[in-house]
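2024-03-11 09:14:02 DEBUG pipeline.ingest accepted 1 chain
2024-03-11 09:14:02 DEBUG pipeline.ingest length=254
2024-03-11 09:14:03 DEBUG pipeline.predict start
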Amino acid sequence: MTDFRPREPGVPGSKPRLTTARGEVAAEVVVLCGEAYLTRLPRLRRQLIPVYSQIALTEPLSAAQWAEIGWAGRETVASMRIGVDYLQRTADGRIAFGERGSPYRFGSRIADGFDVFPPARRDLERMTREWFPMLGGVRFTHHWGGPIGMPRDRMPTFDYDRQTGIATARGYTGLGVATANLAGRTLTALICDDESLLRLLPPVGHRSPNWEPEPLRWLGVRYVQRTLRRLDERMERTGTRPSRRTLAERLWQR
């Protein structure tokens, strides 16, 4: 998909269209839910930026290792770092450890080669062994990652314009497992004109402000990413929590 066109007002029989490398597709309703990949569409290029998330997966742990760790349930675990990290015990007895991965690339570039960022891979393996010293010799069998869509105000959008025939859901900021389900049900209610309370949710009809043009976008996002990482490293080293008053923290919280 390279672009989309809304229905032309006042033109009988006009339909919204998707343009692809192999031709054009018309439908009564076009639903745009490509998340970070929507940045490749000219009309939405600055509505999101791609922010990478990356996961490392250990080999299956033994019953004795799980008993020593004391992680008996399926609780999802995270730290109090500014940077996002998250851990999950999988159904087959592994630890999946995730964090933000590849840094932002100029022009919101997305490429398969960015999915696994070697420094983030090393950090994930190091943190796993630091969190669980009894797993010092654990092997990691899989690493993967990918881009998530982040709007300027970190607020998702669920929208359907009946006049143009364009519907969209976007801006999950890494919380897409639950949000995508909610967005799908909300768009269904909007498109089918159901009298659902979902239509009253704050993301319905919301439009985030555009991200800054390049090179300001690259400078700002990379500054925030690097500064927050340094703050997390200092907190781990000294035990001093962040002040929440630095420029990078204020920009992150906006």
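2024-03-11 09:14:41 DEBUG pipeline.report The chain is about 25% helix and 20% strand.
2024-03-11 09:14:41 DEBUG pipeline.predict end
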